[in-house]
What does this fold into?
Amino acid sequence: MNSILITGCNRGLGLGLVKALVNLPKPPKHVFATCRNKEQAKELQELAAQHPNIHIIEIDLLNFNEYDRVVKEVDTITQGQGLNVLFNNAAISSKQQSLQATKPDEMLNTLNVNVVVPLMFTKACLPLLEKASKLNDNLEMGLERAAIINMSSLLGSIERNTWGSYYSYGTSKSALNSITKALSVDLKEQKILCVSMHPGWVRTDMGGEMAPLEVGPTTAEIVNTILGFKASHHGGFYQYDGEKLPW
It folds into this structure.
């Protein structure tokens, strides 16, 4: 792929994805990595200093008025080639809580960050994705043409829900899955691939110390999996190793 934009790259899975991409035998020409505070993203800055194809974009994604600036910056750097891949990774988590402990402000905040933000950011980036798809009209659906990957969670699977609780986070990921499915219908004619991704239970600040998976190997596997996505994966929900998951 020529270009990919990943949100939430200051740490955890986002940073791991950037590392995995630049370590590919044929890395993308442009890796756009967003973070809320560039000064605090020390490891991302060090990585960008070693790899000139990494472009750090500082943005608070809750500031919807800043989206146009990001789109213009990406368009300028790619020299009108559009954006091949948008990876909506940024999210917030919430602890497992009982129904009695669930509060409306927590629900609203989680839904805003995990659902409204990726949808509105996708809407803003759509002209870039459409441009890339048109320029690669000779290619089939896939990351080399144009794709939207939404970082979901198994906790968003309604069919697999045997654990209860997780009202804020689980509900937000179920809603994000619904967005992925709707986008896959709306963007099918433009041949923009749309997929939801479950990264597994990974040992990050969000995943916690008890998680069995490590960031490095898991994000490398995620990258390997998404590189193989094609038309048959469009509108689907998959985990890091490529296993198809139920909605």
